[in-house]
Amino acid sequence: MACGNNKAGCCSSSRQTEKTTSSCSQAAAEARLDASPAKTVACCDPDADERCDETCIESLAAYECQKACDDAQGTAEHDEHVHEHDDDGKHAPVACSSHLRLAFERFSSYLESAQCICRSVIANHSLTPCCAGQATAALTSAVATSSAAIPGTKRTDHGHGHEHGSEKGLLSADSLSCCSDDHGHDHSKDTGVIKGAVVDLEKSAGHEHVLLSVTGMTCSGCGNKLSKALQEIPAVFNVRVNFVLGNAEFDLNTNEISVDALVEKVDRVTGFRCVKSSNDDQHVDLVVPGGSTGLTVDTLPNGATQVDVLDAKTVRVAYDPSVLGPRDLIHALGDRTTGLTPINHKDPSATAGRKRLYSMLFKTTYAAVLTIPVLVLAWGHTMTDMRTKAIVSLVLATGVQALAITEFYKPAISSLIYSRVVEMDMLVVISITAAYVYSVVAFGFAMANRPLQTAEFFETSTLLITLVLFGRLVAAYARIRAVEAVSTRSLQPTTAILLEGTQTREIDARLLQFGDKFVVSPHSNVPTDGKVVDGTSEVDESMLTGESMPVLKQKGSQVIAGTINGSGTLTALLTRLPGKNTVAEISNLVEEASSHKPKVQDLADRVAGWFVPVVTAAACIVLIVWLLVCLLVRHESAGGAVGTSITYTIAVFAVSCPCAVGLAVPMVLVVAGGIAARGGVIIKSAESTERAYRVSDVVLDKTGTITTAELEVVEANLLPDADDETLTITSALVRDNKHPVSVAVAKYLEDKPYRRLENIRIIPGAGVECLVDGTTFCAGNARWLQAQDHPQVSRIINQGMTTLCITRDSELLAVFGLKNNPRPEAIPVISKLQKRGITVHIVSGDEVKAAEEMASVVGISRQHVAGRQTPADKQAYVRNLMEEKKVVLFCGDGTNDAVAITQADVGVQIGSSSDVTRATADVVLLSGLEGLVLLLDVSRASFRRIAFNFIWSGLYNVFAILLAAGAFVYVRIPPAYAGLGEIVSVLPVILAALSMFWTRRSFAN
Asked: What residues does the HMA domain cover (predicted)?
């Protein structure tokens, strides 16, 4: 009998920056074993953001099984250890059932949490780590396929229980690999390397994904400046900057430049403050009273991967959570640390922004304190003589001007010299410099008793600087409030109740580690993702899924970090660590989506790019025109004409502001993504928000999307040719398959005898098949098995039921009829979509009759129903609609829908919290079909606000420049007040974005 259920790839990328098509076929990956014990496990790249899957556990189980067999050689225990050997006496590349069961019990909790199971096994089995050589191993090793599929493979029953095969090309135990390329890894890691291309392995080993926390960015111009500075460094690629959240991420070839050197260079070029953040490894920030200089990776226990010095007495230690836990780390350090740094309750992006806010508050206050006396002297009626007024004003104005050096001059000049970019700060610099220099010159002439016709106006430069700072202060505060309002990171609880034996104690949630059990008290927050092992309660998950009804949790249920427990007490086994759980995952995706630039952002960047040259040209024209007007029309003196024209020119420079244009798109996307996430809609790409408001057609899968995922067997018919083993084989075929039909039949047959089968092959959109003792058994739909014309099958199909047929060598043995009910929200959601003029379609792999019956129940026209659709047919259906110039949204729930999801303009998948990063869709719905309406509402609201922002920023700059230039003659903006342009132009843009948060309760109503 051949065996081994096919598995998916060993490690799948947890973050996808591009849409990828899931493979429809899945290949089995078996351990390479030799007669001698394994010495090396070639595991995943430890720097990759990837996860192992069940194949890794199977490989490790096979290794342990072989080792146990070899250790017991020649003993009674060896004879009782039933497995098979080949003619050469070699051990089979599969584990016996007992070792397989034990391995899954030990390591299954790692699947949703650890980046690599293999590293934990390496540490615990004293195997030689070879992760650094993974790139080479991935190119030089091949995956051995199942021996049943290889002609000429001999299998002999050696009385031992494993199957052993002598397969040509099998690798030895010394190169045991659980993570080769055939397992589905994406070792390119979104670095821009095309799969299959020839890669310099020596250089690729030095690639590192870097995340920087950046303070000092105030608008999209700042973001573009940072992006350009990074892109000009040859070792940097795949740059993404989000100035709203204050971060930048990119890939770096550390063979050419180190991260520290790069950060120092970027700080110098841009004038911003950049700090490296950790986004891949788990880390803790520790207080080290004795000083941080002596703490290195070499002095830390096995599992610590990096030490970063934050300040004289604080270090950040990154560690591999599958090898080392934070409590173990602190225990190992002993007296060298007093523990963790104080808990930060805020979102990291908001925290960095708040530090910047406090700095700007101080600078604004400082400038205001010096500016007020200057204004009083200039505009008030005081008894002070003119000479004293001028001297005091000069001193105070110089103090304010000194503040502008770090805030305006340094970044503007650095950008001009290093990046060759004239940015918005340069407009302010020109304005305040012209006003201050002219005033100093006029002051000098006045002190020489040769006053100019236009006297000094120090109040202009001081008030201008103060108002610009105040405008940026208000804008920064509004941005922080926006980030905090929609942030999901704040949902992460800070403490947890740890269960140790029968005792409990409260600990910092950051100290949780794998293997921990935690207690969730009544009406408290769940500290991190876990699996309930004891207790029953109802949990409010509305803050993540948008579902208002509490969800029953009992033994075996999954609990999600940040959700609120009801009146019961739960005990859960930790499955995902804080910082890597659902809350963190959703936050990362929302932030990543907001850092992507949709097409409309390109338009905004182009407009902002031309803004400074256009304003400069306009200011020059204003200067020339007013000089001519003053000299030729008003017949003023040359000195008076120069003074007058300079005031108008300064006003033009100061009042213009491209920040509103730059903020128009990213501010809205940040708020929209956060609101959608709070409603259980995870938007993974900014482009989907841009496209969703134009959707004309929504295509829905049937089973699991329109209907509930759970089917019910309502009819089971055994045909005359069936025997006693038919139901046993059927149960084995469907038991490990996750398709809703298989799950329902497996549940129906759960009390029947079970027989373990090997080499079960999954055919997406069709069914499963397996070779049993030379006979082929199949379980699948009637069309695939060509049984649709059989009287029993056709009768069930005509009743609108879903069918599962069982055949033996093409001979029909049994047919099951299944039904399911539409989701409770399906009918109202479809009705809302249709009222908006959106055409709703059903495409299903089920029979046409079943699909049409469901369509009539939920209110969809039969002309928009397609049954008997394979994955390729679904893709073609979507493509045909798109060729008719329709904007198509496809919504499905499984692997069968992956190609159609990828094809559609907006791909949506209904999933659970664990599906968020694995899904290939643009959008993941955690709240069911109601999320479709919320997605469309958020997209429409975003588009309207982006349009308003563009219109407002355009109108403001046109009229503000005309007023500042004196185009309306009797109405103008004095240069002293032109600094208000920052707040007048930017604040409405921010408020427009925030209004989405204030009105979010109206979405989807």
From this structure: 208-274
